[in-house]
Design brief:
Layout (H helix, E strand, L loop, with lengths): L11 E3 L2 E3 L6 E2 L5 H5 L4 H50 L4 E5 L3 E7 L10 E3 L8 E2 L4 E7 L2 E3 L9 H6 L5 E3 L8 E7 L4 E7 L5 E5 L2
Antiparallel strand pairs: 1-2, 2-3, 4-5, 4-10, 5-6, 5-7, 8-9, 8-11, 11-12, 12-13
Length: 210
């Protein structure tokens, strides 16, 4: 009795090669069992590393753009607040002041007092000219007359002493004139990215540092 091998319409494997049912073509290389068992090739690994490097670069660029955007927004906000205070000083009219500390900035109005132990500067309590927090990762430096101005209020825990010593660095007169100033803004611990300049005539401008 003759032995007959069943014929299959599918692909037939012969050793390390694959025989196609179409025209009896034999394939080897990446279709062989030896090729599939050896894993990723060097080229494939390089492609994966290249893709990972691109994704990482895009992520870092996105983070850098977001940080710069926050610095730009804070700079524009501070310029607008000073301009608003100038308009407020002329409309009331009243002398206003701006105190910039490490963690916040505050506008106040001047009121003449008889007692020398009482601070004539009264801080605003409203949401517009009241205290504004400075983000922890943003550093603000004020330069007055070519010297760096430091606010000691943030280092004093006594509320009465803080109120008495809260003398603003920048004074805004009733005609819109201001104490000339330069404010540097940047990421804490790094070089400033933006600068705000205030002229004596009340002109306040900002620009990006190179």
């Amino acid at each position: 009795m003759a032995n007959h091998k069943p014929k299959h319409a599918g692909i037939e494997s012969t050793g390390g090669s694959w025989t196609s049912p179409v025209h009896g073509l034999a394939f080897s290389g990446p279709f062989s069992r030896d090729a599939t068992a050896r894993g990723f090739t060097l080229i494939e690994l390089l492609v994966v590393i290249f893709i990972i490097s691109i994704v990482t670069s895009v992520a870092l660029l996105s983070v850098g753009r977001n940080e710069n955007k926050r610095l730009e927004s804070f700079t524009n906000e501070l310029v607008q607040m000073v301009t608003l205070a100038e308009e407020q000083a002329m409309l009331q009219p009243v002398v206003l002041g701006l105190s910039l500390g490490e963690n916040s900035y505050q506008f106040s109005s001047y009121h003449a007092v008889v007692d020398k132990n009482v601070n004539p500067w009264m801080p605003f309590k409203d949401r517009v000219l009241g205290a504004h927090n400075i983000p922890n990762d943003i550093q603000v430096s004020v330069v007055m007359n070519g010297k760096l101005s430091s606010d000691s209020d943030d280092n004093n825990d006594d509320p009465k002493e803080k109120a008495k010593n809260n003398i603003p660095q920048i004074v805004i007169s009733t005609n819109g004139d201001v104490t000339p100033f330069t404010i540097y803004i940047g990421k804490r611990g790094q070089k400033p990215r933006y600068v705000i300049n205030g002229d004596a005539d009340g002109n306040v401008t900002s620009r990006l540092l190179s």
